[in-house]
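Quick note —
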Amino acid sequence: MAGDLDGPRLEPRGGQAKRLVVFLHGYGADGNDLIDIGRAWQGLLPQTAFVSPHAPEPCGQAPMGRQWFNLTFRTPNERWDGARKAAPALERFLDAELARHKLPPQALALVGFSQGTMMSLHVGLRRAVPPAAIVGYSGLFVLPDDAEPAAVAGEIKSRPPVLLVHGDEDQLIPPQALFQSAQDLAALEVPAEWHMSSGIGHGIDQEGLRHGGEFLARRFGLRR
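Predicted structure written out below.
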């Protein structure tokens, strides 16, 4: 079990992996929730290994699911403190998976959904070597409560290209979170693109999947 975490994997078609995509699931799900996206993207991303680790904690609200951190919406700085606590185990997992495939750190991309997007951005921007890309679905960039982006500027070590995708009918994380996150990332000089999926709630549609896969293919240098 790499770095205390584990989950379903898709080995690359046709031999040795040249790149690694790590999916980080949302609150109350597990690694099986996103691994099929890897199957959908295999044509776009040849020689790519995919892995989708289960989050480290049982979910308080969904006992069959997992969580990166607890959410009660009653505790100050809950997301910030939770992301910071969960980050070291995820860092170890990423390093172990890269080592398993004998890949350099820049061969990594992170793809998150909801709470997994929070973790992807929190950890990805603090990696010593920037990932190739981060794709965040239906999530947000976590800051301490009432803090400006400048408050965390000293922690940001990497500025990989980011794509944010959100449904315009999301009831759980409002679509405005996409624009606030893009603004906060811009304040930290992190290049962020975005796509709003029309008529979509807290989920990913085919258009969002296409945008994410094509974004990764461009950032990995597989297409223009």
